[in-house]
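Weekly structure sync, notes
Attendees: PL (lead), two postdocs, one rotation student
Agenda item 3: pending single-chain targets
PL asked that the sequence for the first pending target be pasted directly into the notes so everyone works from the same version. It is reproduced below exactly as submitted, 42 residues in total.
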Amino acid sequence: MVVLLAVQPTLDIAVRIALALSTNLSRMLHTSEKMNIVHMGR
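Predicted structure, written out during the meeting:
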């Protein structure tokens, strides 16, 4: 239990960083896709 408690914060931080990176990447991809769709539409 002590080891888990010691490792938990680092895992939480890693998960938060991974989630932030994934959300940022998905947003960038969505914006680029929208731009491409707009350009192709015109």
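Discussion points:
- The two ends are 60 Å apart (CA to CA).
- The longest helix spans residues 2-41.
Action: rotation student to compare against the earlier draft before next sync.
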